[in-house]
Amino acid sequence: MTPVRTHSEHRRQPLPSRKGSAGFTLAELVVVLAIIGIMLGLLLPNLGLVSREGDLKAALRGLSGLLAEGRNQAMMSGQSRALCIDLAKGTCWLAGGGERKGRRSLPDGLRCASVSFQDAEPVTTGVARIAIQAKGLARPALIVLRSGKEAWTLAVRPFDARLAAYQGEVTWENLAEAKPW
């Protein structure tokens, strides 16, 4: 018969140690941290561009949505609407039919520099109104957005009240040659 061991008699033996496998050396850790630092140094300056591009896309979607909503409302009600842009406050909304709807603000750091029409001087202060007729036609306009020294132009297409985006400041004279963004 084999003797039974009690709990106090059963003790764990320490694992045999292996030389050289205790972990990373200080030199290895310093090299890895240096590589991570270099990668962050290269990546962080570019994050501002990604953020600005995201802000621009958000502004484009917001203005496109308001234009589409205004066009739909105008066609369904038989009454004209207008996309209003307050250049000083950086807000836009739909007006017409005795109401103001959907006030939205441009993202931080992005401002509306001007709104220009083919038959008038550019609007650079106050409120610009882009008319949308009851038949769904919109007044052609160029909306210039700025962030620091960078500029983008949003062109309102007259027949479907949609926006086309261009990098840089586009004018009526060079719109035909401008490349969409």
TrEMBL record:
Keyword presence, Nuclease: no
InterPro entries in the record: N_methyl_site, Pilin-like
Spans traversing the lipid bilayer: 21-44
Keywords linked to the UniProt accession: Membrane, Transmembrane, Transmembrane helix
Gene3D superfamilies referenced in this protein's UniProt entry, alphabetically: Glycoprotein, Type 4 Pilin
The name this protein goes by in its record: Prepilin-type N-terminal cleavage/methylation domain-containing protein
Species assigned in the record: Desulfocurvibacter africanus PCS
